[in-house]
Amino acid sequence: MTILSIGQTSYDITCPVDGYPVEGTKYQLNEKIEAGGGTAANAAYLLGKWGETSYFAGVVGADDYGAKIRKELERVMVKTDMMENSYEVGTPVSVILVNKKTGSRTRFDVVGATQPQLKRYEYTFVPDVIFTDGKEYNATINALNKFPKAISVLDAGRVNRNLLELCKYVKYIVCSKGFAEAVSGMKIDFNNSVTLVQVYKKLKDKYPNNEIIVTLEHMGAMYTFNGEIRIMPGLKTNVVDPSCSGDIFHGAFVYCIANNFDLEKAITYSNIAAGLSVGKMGGRTSIPNLKEVINYYNQKFNIVEQPAVEEKKEEGDKLPDIPDPSKVVIPQDTVNTSGSTFTIGGATIPTITPKGGNNNVS
């Protein structure tokens, strides 16, 4: 499968610390981990590392950080033909402090007031899957128009106008708990399963023709399977550094969808990949090998019946059962790809004309 990941990237510097710094104090750090970052770029990296034909489309600065990101992607065979260099704005840099005692992180993003956007939409390939983090709206709309048969996956994190608009045009919405709460106008209470159902149904009312997966942080992910609302529990692991775990979930999910896994198995693999990553320090450097994920799945999950984590969950992390799931009816997806216009759920994707370059596959 050929997979196109569209979005922004950054250069991450992770610094393990013994505790959160006290203001006005001088510290000497003996360790740092440097690697590229950004949701779409991390997903592209994982896909390349796991053996897929992976392309990344995004903008980096014409600086040393941008050059390092490009080389890092190319080392795992990610194709960087669609990457552009900005000579006006440098590559965004993130400094991440990870508390070694608690596993919590504090992130400082150094970015320009306005980030440059992709300008050229020239393709020499036809993607089977398009993944976007929603931060390159024009480029994403252009790709969805150009490749209507491609499976589309959106990382829906923070709520903004462009992201809400893109939700109308993609097949899979993989959203954060915060996004789900903001769009539904309701709060999730893990001690009250009714709130989980209510939030999910509100999302389905708004996007009835999309597959929706809600990531619930350490609790796992909520989704529908065979017309039922379900929760796949997260792994019970010792958290060393949670950086990049969400990006890894998305990348693994895209891999599974590209390889025709059913939704439940795709979420299981994604949970495993994300869970394994938090036990290592660093962001991109914590991405597990595909073999690690497969071995964990085979050893810990019943692959004949519905997968279930064998470890006993601590009482404080236990989710209540979803009430009456059999009564929750989810409308079936309807996608019309006839002709040159791509529609999903009755929403027609607007046409975006690139700034320089052409709008064709050459």
What can you see in these coordinates?
The chain is an alpha/beta fold and 362 residues long. The chain has one domain (2-19, 31-109, 131-305): Ribokinase (UDP-N-acetylmuramoyl-L-alanine:D-glutamate ligase). Helices cover 28% and strands 22% of the residues. It has nine helices and 17 strands. The protein has helices spanning 39-49, 64-75, 137-146, 161-166, 177-184, 193-206, 245-258, 263-277, 290-300, and strands at 2-6, 10-17, 33-37, 53-57, 59-61, 84-86, 93-99, 105-110, 129-132, 151-156, 172-176, 211-215, 220-225, 228-233, 335-336, 343-344, 347-348. The strands form four sheets. It has an eight-stranded mixed β-sheet, sandwiched between helices. Strands 3-2-7-8 form a four-stranded mixed β-sheet. Strands 15-16-17 form a three-stranded antiparallel β-sheet, with no helix packed on it. Helix 5 (177-184) packs across helix 6 (193-206) and helix 7 (245-258) packs antiparallel against helix 8. Residues 304-316 and 328-347 have low confidence and may be disordered.
